């Protein structure tokens, strides 16, 4: 199980790799190596500058096969749910912002077109999005409607065969760098989705600044000022709010794994630090208080991983219910942020520096806790599943 | 054209590599086994030739324990067409002479036009196998290349020297070795990983290569490791405080250590 030189990591202690196939291990390995080679060395700088070379990264990730990797056809890699989860985990071990880029591209924007789009829409967008040549974003949240998207104000009005969209979307990942936006809007006929090329007149996407979380990720506002679209821009199979929620379910599944990547990176950093750092004349790792922290974090990381893999196997059998994804998202993000904060204490003052990945992960996880359904909302989903009583309103 | 790329599985240089004092060989449990990075560059060089030409096939070849098949799988996932694994318990502990003999036996008679290797492995570091192999196969040898190009029956590239490089060329068939300055290896793509499973991978024993078992392995090797000593623990360095003569002091220190 373990190497003879260094003690096992938490996930090695749990024997997790024994649950993975050779292909899954190989896919994990190639994403890990890509992150080590191309991403990790630059993260602190990207985070500090609040910018990243997203287009270049998208093309590299596309060439690897990571964009829309769990979708079949149209240039997508057609990988298993587990492989997709493991890729998310490795990407988020680098940074939640990188995983967000991939999640939004593959599980929100591409998935929306793949699951609800017309054949023409699929042909036009999916191959370019899979290769990373075109970047997509997904506009559901509005300034005044986040957890409750059914109150959305963005409105699509029919004008002859055309549609005219007006409204504002907020907190939209990849917005300013996207070639295509999947925008959800209310119509006289319920919520519908639209495939909006971002060069359509009336569309703009100013970037949101002053973030202290997910700084290595582009977050934008989408302004739709009388955006005129042909009838063919509407997603034909998306006929209610159920459609965007279906997309979110896909992306959340990736987060169930992804958040553990951030936690793993923090725990490995803190463990190595505690073994090296001497306080009161012996290694910090040799004190019982530290060992208790490490042991508890290892337990939560390993349990979270077992849960993630269980959900992935259910997904592969097409037997994964949305409330089960809520179990994973709520637990794994909550535990990941706890782990990140606890690891930060182990690093002492170094814990607040970008020289180590820990504070960056802790800050990023604040966003992960909120997006794709806040932890409160997932708690309510689970509560409703257990009691049959909805407590949202 | 047929290209063979030699790959070797070595302990990851990121890990804490150690020698086993009992066998005086690398403690393979001390670090994760990975395909030697220099061999990934060799695979990359082969794949670039394949992509630039027509009808070029790339075969990855390794001699190593059962797990070494992982190095072959990586080469296949990167884009090699087929692989050959020479796997025989009696081979453990082989030195460069024995390794080159076994590899030569595996490569001979397969009509390879070009054999590409790394210039040295990060574990053994004898940097002798490519040259020995060329000799045994009766092929030209072109070592320490940072670029490799094939055109009209010859292979050429920039050969690294102590203070620069020379343009070198050799007629095919040839054995070339590449340095860590040669093209950066690609990451295996997901599709490549899945496709690798369906590519031919041949496993050969010494007997199947027609080699006598009695000469193989550490017991019969031409070179012996008599003793191993752990690297001494790192000591505190010398601190030179600049009182105006620091430059001279540093220069004297380097000169005394015969570094300048
Ligand atoms: C970095 C980042 C990137 C994002 N990317 C995207 C994107 O690409 N596309 C997109 O559409 N959206 C995106 N979002 C938006 C995200 O999904 C929303 O922020 C999230 O849904 C919460 O909405 P809100 O911010 O309006 O909070 P609110 O809904 O206003 O919630 C505020 C608080 O009230 C709680 N709350 C709400 N309702 C209830 C209730 N019924 N009972 C108890 N508590 C409740 C919430 O849990 C939260 O704690 C992103 C957000 C961030 C931070």
Condensed summary:
The complex is a heterodimer of chains A (393) and B (260). Chain A is α+β, with helices and mostly antiparallel strands and 393 residues long. Chain A has helices at 10-13, 22-39, 43-49, 54-64, 81-94, 96-116, 119-131, 242-276, 288-316, 322-346, 358-370, 375-387, and strands at residues 136-139, 155-159, 162-173, 180-187, 190-197, 203-204, 219-229, 278-279, 282-283.
Which tags fit this structure?
heterodimer, A: 393 residues, alpha+beta, Butyryl-Coa Dehydrogenase, subunit A, domain 1, Butyryl-CoA Dehydrogenase, subunit A, domain 2, Butyryl-CoA Dehydrogenase, subunit A, domain 3, 3 domains, four-stranded antiparallel beta sheet, three-stranded mixed beta sheet, 12 helices, 9 strands, 52% helix, B: 260 residues, alpha/beta, Rossmann fold, seven-stranded parallel beta sheet, three-stranded antiparallel beta sheet, 6 helices, binds flavin-adenine dinucleotide, transport (chain B)
